[in-house]
User: Fold this.
Amino acid sequence: MDIDVIVRGTGRFVPERVLTNDDFAQVVETSDEWITARTGIKIRHFVSPGETNSLMAAAAARQALEMAGAEPSDVELIIVPTVTAERIFPATASIVQARLGATKAACLDMVAACSGFIYALSAATAWLRSGEYKNALVIGSEVMSALENFTDRNVCVLFGDAAAAVYLQAEPRADRERGVLHFDLGSDGTLVPLLYQKAGGSAHPPTFTTVLNEEHFITMQGQEVFKRAVRKMDETARTVVAKAGHTPDEIDWFIAHQANSRIVEAAGRRLGVPPEKVPINIDHFGNTTSASIPLLLDELNREGKLKAGHKVVLFAFGAGLTWASAYLVWGD
Assistant:
């Protein structure tokens, strides 16, 4: 069908509780200087008691709906990409649906780690283009603090909690380039051991032993992930730009997953674009996994930096290992 898929609203929820680098220096051998130099992170936000994944996701969704002038009763599809679902089942998206009162929405979660938002955006776009649904909420929401080992200084300082959403709407095809247009998705499952959570699933269900052995926390080989992330983020961004029939210098914004400021900066250099086209906000949020791209998208949108007609590339890399990119033209 001849349909454009337009981002009509963005929103976010960031917990009020803040942890600084100096806070981490009280519990592990680290310092503000060490963390800042290696990650670019200065602060990150953690949930407080009573703040859950679905609560954050619903709050972000309400902002996106308000911006779009839509009501929860209008929503036809909700996808929540997350690695920190509230339960193994049901889907966190179903809990979000109940919080919103979006009674007619189909609901599902997706797991592609830090690439999850783009994977979910791709799925939602395909459904809307098919004519099956007229609109969708895609909400990256993570409580990464639940998976952190606060004795591992290489991992615990990296992550933050947050949720961010986009509201997509299917509209008749225009006579110009607009909306969400192209994707590149990929994975290499042979590299699962580089970044994973060992226990908690059906292969290693929770037991006294898995808890005692700290198998429910994030396990990461940081240097190996770093090397692959820089290369693959460059490759997937170039692929989706080529699909769109453009070159990197013609793109207005490259919105990267905020894993580490050095990764984002290196990806920008490889693409040959100026730093101002590759914004960074990891300094005040940390790595929020599937929430990081929509969080930055909402920040740029609310600051008025995203203008109608701007060419935007989203790109990410995460556990799996997965990678993903999307090309869209902002506004009408």
Notes: The mean pLDDT is 96. The chain has two domains: 3-172, 179-329. The domain at 3-172 is CATH 3.40.47.10 (Peroxisomal Thiolase; Chain A, domain 1). Residues 184 and 230 are 16 Å apart (CA to CA).
